[in-house]
């Protein structure tokens, strides 16, 4: 049975164990900025960052999925990530992690461990047999392969994957999924353009963009309806048939020393009053435990 240690070991078996770095989303960099909530955000959640009258400071990190420290930025079938620490005062943060696909590759920790174990063999037959037996694990790559390589971390949509429950000041609850949409619009590269890029092109690209002004995303809550799956992160919600509420604007204003982001973990379970994680999605709590194991190893 999968646990935090076995999952991090399995990530290391696939991508190599590299000293001093994350076991996953290894290739990335740190940024800073702020979040300004809309008036509507408060109608959904009493969380402090959704009710603030002034911009809420944040630290963020953009990353490529997987544990390869040199994961090429032009790879199509890999997710881009954005991780955020919202400063909610008194030294406390609440975190939000999103990836550039609406689904994850496994429905539960055991399936993720089996996937990583199969991939680590590098045996085409074993890997093929895994995906044959676990078609839900192929959805993320299918989704990414049907779209262009993002031209920038600033020009792609990101999803929070898990279903969270918001509670407002009146005690009203609503199940949501987070989605962040780039204010610069979705911009992709042709396969030719992607091929010509440096494997590390995103970092200088973003620095250049930030020199001209903030990089912004509209953070939205897709409103779940009865029957929408809330415990399986490989299941899509029919989001074009769902209402969504704009929660606010994420504004990335500059780069930040990577040490700031490496000093701890971005923890998806670090929520705050007004936000609750999914109760029966077993991936959700396992992430927190696995990130702690990864941190313990890289902080040595
Ligand atoms: C059981 C399933 C999962 C495991 C075992 C896992 C494992 C990891 C590990 C070990 C790290 C590095 C932690 C650190 O050293 O700070 C990480 C980072 C990350 N993961 Fe996961 N992950 C899982 C599911 C997910 C899901 C569903 C998402 C979707 C949002 C996600 C998004 C991210 C992002 C964006 C980062 C980068 C955080 C940063 O920049 O510091 N992961 N993951």
Protein described:
The structure is a single chain. With 300 residues, the chain is α+β, with helices and mostly antiparallel strands. It has a single domain, classed as Catalase core domain (Catalase HpII,  Chain A, domain 1, Beta Barrel). Helices cover 27% and strands 27% of the residues. The chain has nine helices and twelve strands. Strands 1, 2, 3, 4, 6, 7, 8, 10, 11 and 12 form a ten-stranded antiparallel β-sheet that branches. Strands 5-9 form a two-stranded antiparallel ribbon. Helix 3 runs antiparallel to helix 4 (124-133). The longest helix is centred in the C-terminal third of the chain and has 16 residues, at 283-298. The protein starts with a helix and ends with a helix. The structure holds protoporphyrin IX containing FE. Protoporphyrin IX containing FE is lined by residues 7-8, 11, 22-25, 28, 61, 63, 81, 83, 97-99, 104, 109, 112, 161, 233, 265-266, 283, 286-287, 290-291, 294-295, 298. Belongs to the catalase family. It comes from Hyphomicrobium denitrificans (strain ATCC 51888 / DSM 1869 / NCIMB 11706 / TK 0415). Keywords: Heme, Iron, Metal-binding, Oxidoreductase, Peroxidase, Signal. Its cofactor is heme. It is an enzyme of class 1 (oxidoreductase).
Key words describing this protein structure:
300 residues, alpha+beta, Catalase HpII,  Chain A, domain 1, ten-stranded antiparallel beta sheet, two-stranded antiparallel sheet, 27% helix, globular, binds protoporphyrin IX containing FE
């Amino acid at each position: 049975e999968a646990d935090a240690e076995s999952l991090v070991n399995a990530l290391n078996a696939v991508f190599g164990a590299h000293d001093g770095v994350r076991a996953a989303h290894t290739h990335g960099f740190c940024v800073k900025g702020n979040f300004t909530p809309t008036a509507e955000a408060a109608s959904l959640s009493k969380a402090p960052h959704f009710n603030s009258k002034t911009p809420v400071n944040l630290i963020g990190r953009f990353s490529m999925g997987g544990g390869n420290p040199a994961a090429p930025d032009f790879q199509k079938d890999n997710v881009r990530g954005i991780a955020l620490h919202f400063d909610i005062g008194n030294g406390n943060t609440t975190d939000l992690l999103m990836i550039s696909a609406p689904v994850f590759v496994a429905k539960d920790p055991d399936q993720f461990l089996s996937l990583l174990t199969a991939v680590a063999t590098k045996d085409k037959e074993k890997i093929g047999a895994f995906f044959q037996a676990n078609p839900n694990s192929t959805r993320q790559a299918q989704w990414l392969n049907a779209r262009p390589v993002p031209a920038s971390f600033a020009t792609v949509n990101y999803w929070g994957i898990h279903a969270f429950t918001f509670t407002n000041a009146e005690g009203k609850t609503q199940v949501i999924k987070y989605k962040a949409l780039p204010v610069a619009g979705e911009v992709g590269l042709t396969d030719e353009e992607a091929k010509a890029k440096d494997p590390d092109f995103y970092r200088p690209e973003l620095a250049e963009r930030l020199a001209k002004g903030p990089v912004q995303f509209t953070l939205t809550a897709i409103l779940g309806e009865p029957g929408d799956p809330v415990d399986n992160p490989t299941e899509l919600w029919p989001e074009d048939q769902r209402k969504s509420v704009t929660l606010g604007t994420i504004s990335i204003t500059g780069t930040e020393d990577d040490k700031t982001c490496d000093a701890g973990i971005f923890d998806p379970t670090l929520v705050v009053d007004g936000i609750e994680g999914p109760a029966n999605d077993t991936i959700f709590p396992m992430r927190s435990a696995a990130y702690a194991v990864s941190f313990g190893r890289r902080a040595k």
